[in-house]
């Protein structure tokens, strides 16, 4: 298992499922295929197939009364993706980009940001939150 | 045609081909399937298929004595990807990340960075090149 194994599933599609499953569990307490299907804009048949694949990879389990849950490994990947999503979103919001652009860019970038690159973004984010004069100066150059 | 049509082909795989074709033309003067195959680590049969698809999309042409060339539209997309590649690489290098990590992250991110996000990175890059005290301060926090 590679050193990256806790950061991504190795598949952008699987990453997106894990992210949405964790979002749903945190919002609603459970992740139903119908809600995963709606959030990802993917047919229920495809969701069913992917849940089987995630199960085979040891990333989700199906429990009789709780529905789809994340395994420990699935949870770690989902957490890492959501952290990247939040950090990248907060960073781009500093610069006043419109929300659609931010969402679109972040959904793409979040699968490709290593721990080191995330740390760079995080350090910049903290600096710019503390130094409004610098942020203002940068925003005027956009 | 969407406002983004000059920025990406809509397919990560096609983007990567266009990027490599332009790299090869600029390095060697021509882009041969064997070199595309080597640079992308993809079989020559797959390269042949993709070149046909890029031709059908109006992104490359085959000319008898020059081999594969980019159409104007293909060239604009390739230029945009290479600009994103260079800006992202230069930005991450400021922070001393190792070259493998940078290459891997940039190859993923370059397909998902809008013009607005690229502008943010570019403004930060210029600022940090001009303010070595700030860069040093940030690097110490990594
Ligand atoms: Mn996301
Ligand atoms: Mn590239």
TrEMBL record, chains A, B:
Keyword rRNA-binding assigned: no
Record-linked InterPro entries: DtxR_MntR_Metal-Reg, Fe_dep_repressor, Fe_dep_repressor_sf, HTH_DTXR, Iron_dep_repressor, WH-like_DNA-bd_sf, WH_DNA-bd_sf
Record's keyword terms, sorted: Activator, Cytoplasm, DNA-binding, Manganese, Repressor, Transcription, Transcription regulation
SMART domains: HTH_DTXR
UniProt keyword Transcription regulation present: yes
UniProt family annotation: Belongs to the DtxR/MntR family.
Stated role: In the presence of manganese, represses expression of mntH and mntS. Up-regulates expression of mntP.
Protein name: Transcriptional regulator MntR
Organism encoding this protein: Rubritalea halochordaticola
Gene encoding the protein: mntR
């Amino acid at each position: 298992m590679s050193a990256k194994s806790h950061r991504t599933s190795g598949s952008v599609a699987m990453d997106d499922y894990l992210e949405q499953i964790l979002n749903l569990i945190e919002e609603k307490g459970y992740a139903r295929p119908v809600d995963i299907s709606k959030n990802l804009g993917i047919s229920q048949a495809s969701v069913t197939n992917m849940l089987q694949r995630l199960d085979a990879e040891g990333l989700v389990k199906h429990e009789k009364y709780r529905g789809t849950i994340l395994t420990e490994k699935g949870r770690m990947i989902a957490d890492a993706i959501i952290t990247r999503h939040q950090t990248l979103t907060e960073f781009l919001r500093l610069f006043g980009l419109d929300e659609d652009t931010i969402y679109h860019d972040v959904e793409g970038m979040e699968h490709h940001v290593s721990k080191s690159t995330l740390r760079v973004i995080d350090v910049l984010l903290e600096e710019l939150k503390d130094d409004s004069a610098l942020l203002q100066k940068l925003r005027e150059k956009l």
